[in-house]
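PROTOCOL LOG
Step 1. Enter all chains and additional molecules of the complex.
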Amino acid sequence: MTTHAPTLDTDMPTVPQSCDLAVVGAGPAGLAAAATAARAGLKTLLLDENPGPGGQIYRAITRSPLPEGAVLGPDYWSGSPLARNVTTSQVTYLAQTTVWSLARDLELGISRAGSAYLIRPRRVILATGALERPMPIPGWTLPGVMTAGGAQTLLKSSGLVPEGRLVLAGCGPLLFLLAAQFLEAGVKIAAILDTTAAGAWRAALPEAFDFLTSPYFRKGISLLRKVRAKVKIISGVTALQAEGEGVLRAVSYETASGKGRIEVDTLLLHQGVVPNLNLGNAAGIPTVWDEAQCCFRPDVDGEGTSAIPGLAVAGDGAGIGGALGAAERGKLAALVAIEALKPDAPVLSEKPQVEAALSKVLRGRAFLDRLYRSAEAFRRPSGDTIACRCEEVSAATVRETVKLGCAGPNQLKSFLRTGMGPCQGRMCGLTITELMAQAQGVSQAEIGYYRLRPPVKPITLAELASLPKDESAMKSVERG
Amino acid sequence: MFRRLPEAKGDTVLITVDGKPVTARAQDTVAAALLAAGIDHCRTTPVTGAPRAPYCLMGVCFDCLVVVDGRGNRQGCMVQVADGMRVETQQGKRDIAR
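Step 2. Run joint prediction.
Step 3. Record the structure below.
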């Protein structure tokens, strides 16, 4: 029997036991943080699950099968220098490496090629990025339904595009960016079902000036124009349903002017991105509700510093600010680490430039947050619609359980196992908070989020058993 | 279903899915290879036996769990294909012996 151990790149560095700074995640924030720290001479370790650098936004940037230029667009390829800066620097970059725990004393538990290791860095920056906000509509678990981000990943890393009838549904810039990339690649889109709330433009208006003078404006307008010219866009969608027995057949929708139904092979859902909280939450960084972005984020300051000594969060994992903002926030967090470990490093003089660049690229964000705020109907499902995909728990069951007296998401785990399946709450966490807030008539902040525990990614007993053992560990299992 | 863009470069590798030969590209993850091969679901759920397919493609949803070279509960979107790899769709819970 042949077994394929996880394949690692040929020039694979070994896992060091200690370092000055460990950065978790090789997206824009992590790449910028690691490169900045290495420039100051810090012994820097960059850990990432994927086979190559880039995170999700610059996914497969060094290994995409697509030629540079056309399909993916200039914003994607602009991530190349970030990746290059790290690969040509002194950073020890460990790809295909999973971080499954982080203790308050900053001990990291990692897993690589079937073996586990513990590392003790002096400081840690979490750059774990964002994930797509769950979009729990009826039928969203059917094969044929996928996230827009997922489809974009297939395009970037494998050059794959949907075949057959395709509909995109939801709201947010990514939906239209993906539509433009598909059009560029010659993919036909039957329709875009736009769930942007009817009053959203009015709500966003007070923030419009910043947006009009931001770099996003011109790009956004030309993107919308391009997509509108070629795709039927149905606006003001208030309800969606994926239909089919065992596989997707159609999507039905409602607007103020009536109902519609489109036969489809692929339905791509998206309603914005939210911080990926799991590792920081499990390490003990408190989680706070961000009303403007309608999601939870870790409680860190503007430079990413948390209440746990030496631990920072940078990039979208600390609150959504976009790829360009993430890179600047990565640099800022690295400068804080450098200040602590090498206070005379020349690179520290760059801080004002980084702060200026950050405030420039964050311009217009408040407008986007308001315009693309996910509508309540798509955050608070009802009836048989699945809220927890892993344990297949419906919205109605969650509501009934709240009526029985279940007070919060952590208690709900023991009633229904929500958040206890393999995804560890990543796909249901926000939906559970929203449903419990609605059922109890209180705010999401009052309900709170799951308290997460390590391991934040599954690890096998064999991997755990491979951990190097010290004497006390050996003695602890000795029999008298 | 998904198709490969003609401009996408890359070497081909041969894997098997439930015993049948499937051609993939070296840079594919198992999940990408399954979708490119038109395999409409990669597992059935342990709770109701409902079919599921890859959903997020970034390692967070765990809907693409498959058996790889005899080992169950592998995230298809996080495992790179390799020549000769044996992939099986996963029925219900992971078999404890795997």
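Step 4. Note key features.
Chain A touches chain B through 53 residues (CB under 8 Å).
The first helix of chain A runs from residue 28 to 39.
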